[in-house]
């Protein structure tokens, strides 16, 4: 009987779960790496041959094995001192798994939990950092030519049950957000908003709840402590990864709209939840059971409170192009074909049929990478609505290679 000794991370480096994107400078192509969790604030630009190297930093390949693969791929030797220096640089940037990253996580988690607030992480980048300018910016989204028209909603005055809104950069997608929030503006508004977004950096558990109040340039949004206490009592594990809220943008991007539309009239509270599961993973019995247990329990807590609530699913749809793993940039034809698939996929969402929504994506093998599946699925499980409607659909271009993200606004009554 043989036993496997723990592999020395200096010789078997393991890259953390980073994001990357191709960039072009002149005729040269590079790859930029960054940390979506915010543990590291660094970015690293690598030539393609070095990106080949770090792709094999999986904790299973030794540096010697990586060198052999490099020789086979590029026909030249990889000098040991160069690869060792690369490992050192990555470790210093907290891009590798190991003790330095673990210690940084512990410090970051302690700081977050000691803080009374989840502070605005994207103000000044994705939207205005000054309160007065932000109010003007939000108003501009509603009056933009891409924004909602001025005729009253056919659902004006009805209790709103849920909305789907983008999570894309507000500077570009703000008018599409406004289509959803115009419906909220004209509806009978509840006092509680269950905000559910995608944890783009991933989670060990499927859901991450935080009880922090959220700060924006427009003030502080209060978390609903009575509801959160009941959620913690039933699902304590859901609070273990609350740190992920610090660097994720999905919920933060909804708050200025809520503050402008609801907060200007009356106080409101939020239940902030991030989630990370795919349609394909729902075919696995343990995942499906865990998802259904949490959502059924959350729905029970919300209904038992006797308070009206609105679920906001902060969600993007398809991700197309080289940035997201495709071999070629999307063409106009491939985008329009994806748009047709998106609108077909959203039909069962309009009809409040979560199983059919899931089935559609599974049938496609999730080849278009629907990152907003989990929030939208959760919304459908939590609300009791008589109608649902796609209000507006659009896309954003994310890099020089025409990589594309699609998104939509929806409302449920």
Automatic annotation (TrEMBL):
This is AmmeMemoRadiSam system protein B. InterPro entries: MEMO1_fam (IPR002737). It comes from Nitrospira lenta. It comes from the Bacteria. Transmembrane segments: none annotated. Belongs to the MEMO1 family.
